[in-house]
Amino acid sequence: MSITLIAIYVAGRLVWNTGSGSELSLAFGWAAAVLLFAVSALGVRKRALSLASRLRAGRSSLWLSVHLYGGSIFLLLVFLHSDLGLPHGWATAWLWGLSLWTVAGGLVGRGLQLWIPRLITSGLSNEVLYERIPDLVADLAKRASDLSAASGPEIRDLYVRTIASELEAPRRNWHYFFDITGGIRERLRPVRYLRDKLSNEEAGRLDQLESLYRAKLEIDAHFTLQQALRSWLWLHLPTSLLLWVFLGLHLWGVVRY
Fold it and tell me: What's the CA gap between 20 and 76, in Å, rounded?
């Protein structure tokens, strides 16, 4: 489809000498508007699953494929409609920029949906529900504090200097996007350095503290990655709604003038 559209555009430029404002350019614009309507139907379907099921509107995977592929074709049609150049006028500039941002944001979001679950399962030992993270962190903090209070001065000092502040709340760390296991291993290094200096009894307590600390670091990894997976929609949905506003203004101007 993309090659066909580009071939039509090139033929129009070389053979018929078409350009911005030509009938072919207008056809690209109307096609983009129709395709945007079809692509946006995915959002409607996701919010009316029971109705879609009764109407046999197709599987979610099919609609997602239409959404992604159709969005990419929509952006190509926008570029062809503007004659592969920057638009003139503030309204068309907003429409052009919002189209680019919305499609790019959707593709980034799909990439995160494919990448982050694999990253989590490959590097983390526990599954964590995002909504339970605050309660889990609070429980780990209390258990680690009680364990530190029952330990010797070396462990208490390590706890105060290195661990206590980390257990206060969930923390984002963008390092988890690039080296999820290495980041945790590096943060646990001070705990391992202390182990050889302790008695067997104190080493056992340190092992328990290390386990709690590791659990907290894994929760931080879940917090960072799952939040990114949830937050990307705020870069996509508002701009897609705003895109419809400017498209409506643009179509009104075309029809009126």
Answer: 15
Instruction: Report the alpha-carbon distance of residue 20 to residue 87 in Å, rounded.
Output: 10
Counting as low any pLDDT under 70, the low residues of the chain are: 13-21, 42-63, 182, 257
Q: Are 236 and 105 in contact (CB under 8 A)?
A: yes
Neighbours of 67 (CB within 10 A): 21
Number of neighbours of residue 179 by Cβ within 10 angstroms:
12
Residue 241 has a pLDDT of 85
Report the C-alpha gap between 181 and 14 in whole angstroms: 56
Instruction: Provide the whole-model pTM.
Output: 0.73
Nearest Cα neighbor of 147 from 85, 213, 98 is: 213
Contact 113/106 with Cβ under 8 angstroms? no
Q: Which residue has the tokens 């960072």?
A: 224
